[in-house]
Design goal:
The structure is a single chain. By secondary structure, this protein is α/β, with parallel strands linked by helices. Among the domains are: 3-159, 3-Layer(aba) Sandwich (Rossmann fold); 414-466, OB fold (Dihydrolipoamide Acetyltransferase, E2P) (Beta Barrel). The protein is 31% helix and 21% strand. The protein has 13 helices and 18 strands. The strands form four sheets. The chain has a six-stranded parallel sheet, with helices on both faces. The chain has a five-stranded mixed β-barrel with strand order 14-15-16-18-17. Strands 8-7-9-10 form a four-stranded mixed sheet, sandwiched between helices. Strand 17 (449-458) and strand 18 form a beta hairpin. Helix 12 (345-357) packs parallel to helix 13 (385-408). The longest helix is centred in the last third of the chain and has 24 residues, at 385-408. The radius of gyration is 23 Å and the shape is globular.
Length: 468
Amino acid sequence: MASFYVENFGCRATQADGAAVERQFRERGLVRAERPSEAEVVVLNTCTVTASADRDARAAIRRVRRENPGCQIVVTGCYAQRAPEEIAALPGVSQVIGNSHKHQLAEIVLRQPDSGSGGRIPSAFVPLSSISHRQRPFLACPEPNGEGTNDQRPIFISDVFAHTELLAAPVFEAANERTRPNLKVQDGCDNRCSFCVIPSVRGQSRSLPLRQVLAEVNALVAAGYREVVISGINLGRWGRDLAEPAQFEDLIRTILDGTALEKLRISSVEPMDWSDELIQLIADSPRIARHAHVPMQSGSDRVLRAMHRKYRPWHYREKIKKIRTAMPTAAIGADVMVGFPGETEQDFEETRRMVEELPFTYLHVFTYSPRPGTPAAAMRNQVPANLARARNKVLRDLAAEKKLAFMKSFIGQTVEAITLSAFDGTHTDCLTDNYLQLRLPGRHQANHWTRALVNDVQNGTLMAREST
């Protein structure tokens, strides 16, 4: 029986896509190999949000080719959508399949359409090289010079904005943490932030229909999972594109009403979509994790305008303060970018001051990376890399101080946490309702909620014992 391996790079949405690709292969009778070196088909599901992400993908191609020279290397994801010819030219690459065709990846690689629940499940793959041009599911890209078609080069890509498909399959946070599946319910983005390449490689915003969301969540509940994380590229826009338009709050209520899920965790939601209704909905329900991730990017009004972000610093401050007032113990996190073109010392100081003033419990700090084709890449006054790195460190150090202070505030308090799979011989790792790492002495069965009394903070982790 043929084997496959999917390696994912980047965000939760990419990981969710990878899980859906795995589902495609399994439905066609393939088995998942334990590592790339043992697979006959290796799928590299790439990210392209930074230049570093592109480099990681190229390094992975070289590594897989070196360790498993006989396998098919299939490159998909955002980098594949953005620069297919660049990837196809790399030694060892068998196929490049953009996000536009990721929903049919297994069909393209194996030349086997989905057989459905009652059909025959094939037991081996058909290499693409053995398929005649007339049988290929899609035409390859034209040559850059426009003369003829590049039929022999295995590129499958088209305008991602013309596609409405959305891959959906649960993905888990980490190999040793199979307790908190992540379900992508939205993809694409209609915003046009000047620094971001994601809309051009993921297309327009599109939503997983409500009945399909409920089916996936109920299946996870039936399998015994107690917490599910819902995510998306622009999650708060869920429902706007459906035949019967709906609001994100409608999705949350329906999951609570239509499933027996014990805990729902919401991933990143843009500031504009943190309505008073959503904040109160989370605050009022013990079945929703006390956790708010609200991308900030900059505390400078001038920089936010140059980024084409749709909110101002005062607006952002108001949202964060409302969240903290409604949920005094909630985890509140943000994405912050440093080194955006033209960012002055004053701009950075405004960002630093906002981070210092607001009740953040953690930050994801990014250094700006020019992305080909984005307006910001052509802007003047690009910030020197060493200065951007220094600003990054300032914010990371400040975020670490704020996180430590938040964690210490729970010493002597009882918290709710879910046990994870990791056990180091003395302690079991857990995650609190409000997104803090916690350790309990001894081995505990994974995927169980427990109440724990916090007695110390060590190395960024709450140390606790079970509360009676």
